[in-house]
Amino acid sequence: MTASTRYDDVADLLARRIAQGTYTVGDRLPSIRELCREQGISVTTAQSAYARLEEMGLAAARPRSGHYVLPRPRPRDLPTVSRPAQRPLEVAQWDQVLAMVGSAPSADQPRRLGAGTPALDAATLKPLGRLLSGLHRDPDPRDLGYDSLAGHPPLRQQVARLATTSGCLLHPDDVVITTGCQEALAIALRMLAAPGDVVAVDSPSFYGAMQILEAHGLKVMEIPTDPRRGISLEALELALDQWPIRAIQITPTCNNPLGYTMPESRKRELIRLARRYDVAIIEDDIYGDLAFESPRPKAIKAFDDEGRVLLCSGVSKSLMPGLRVGWIAPGRYRDRALHEKYVSTGASATQPQRAVAAFIEKGHYQRHLREIARRYQRQRDIMTDWVSESFPDGTRISQPRGGFLLWVELPGPIDTPRLNERLAAERLHVAPGPMFSASGKYRHCLRLNYAERPTASLEAAIRRVGELAGEMLEYPDSEATLS
């Protein structure tokens, strides 16, 4: 075990003790010498462990006294449980989605404060850059032709090994590589439902999946969703009783946009419900590897012994979106998934697959996840403080358990599409709530991204959003351009 992973492990051990109440607020933690003796580590490793604990916001050093447990951040009001329409709906909102994803960021574009882009400046991504450079500099002739339709075999092997961290037992042949997780979701939805069919989703829900449903003429049954526990299984059961639902599409771990992770007991119950009504589950696990807890939560797929869960994931959120590397473990639907893959894009590009496979195999991926999850957790707390301080009273904020996206529920009549119009004059843009609903709900909600390192410029932008929201609340009928 390397020194770096050792001090990470010691820091995680101390964090667990704090969480369990072994050490409470104000308690003095073991001295450097005591920690060295207890854990059998060097002074340098112990000092690094405490530095990590400080970065996590769990402890602070007092001169000539030692390290002490800090108070936990004060609890904030979470967003309210969603109350979507109780009938299947057709999807709209494409114009708002296009405004978010339609063009690459440039000097002429607004600063997108709600985009779903991960941090691309992490030092732990450098080995991936070197792998990609080497492949481009000295390409293997085999990389210039078509790869296997199911995907590069070494990558499928690494994905199957990686799946064990989420409790899934997969064979490499169970995995089909796709051009991003978006294609995996599209393949799953096309296989399971025909135009006019109904698909149940958590609400609010990922707008990319919603647009796939719209493009294929599918109807959406939005299910009430709790910001702590996730989709309401009680409401889902009522919907399954009442409507001919063909599939359940859900993001149960580090959800986008609410940030919740469904408790394991409810994931098991969801499997039982799907079995009783004989419906498939499309599980979007794209943010699962970015969970702040260790080990990461189990996927719903981990409890599936019938092949009815189609697990979709990729590296667009954990590594780089530009790689366009995703995958689907389609269970009993594998043959159909291969056919859908063929008619949509055929084989995926080989070089990105080779680079990602090598990155995982060499241990770089797990190291990157450890570092980036700690960073995102710190930045979540900073962003939450900025929103709490600068947004109107009554604002409710999600408490994500992973990933890098924050859901904000504004008070009163504040309309976030209209807020975006006012922000455009200052070259700012948030992700407005209606993007995440088939019916255009959540007009008083927005999504923010905290993957970017905190800077004075970012803080000023967030505070400006809050100021404009406050002015809209105070003067709801004013259409004048605000200064």
From TrEMBL:
Family annotation (Gene3D superfamilies): Aspartate Aminotransferase, domain 1, Type I PLP-dependent aspartate aminotransferase-like (Major domain), Winged helix-like DNA-binding domain superfamily/Winged helix DNA-binding domain
Entry keyword set: Aminotransferase, DNA-binding, Pyridoxal phosphate, Transcription, Transcription regulation, Transferase
GO function term, MF aspect, one: pyridoxal phosphate binding
Domain of life: Bacteria
Keyword Transcription regulation tagged: yes
Domain HTH gntR-type: 4-72
Pfam families xref list: Aminotran_1_2, GntR
CDD domains: AAT_like (cd00609), WHTH_GntR (cd07377)
Similarity section: In the C-terminal section; belongs to the class-I pyridoxal-phosphate-dependent aminotransferase family.
Protein name: PLP-dependent aminotransferase family protein
Organism: Halomonas elongata (strain ATCC 33173 / DSM 2581 / NBRC 15536 / NCIMB 2198 / 1H9)
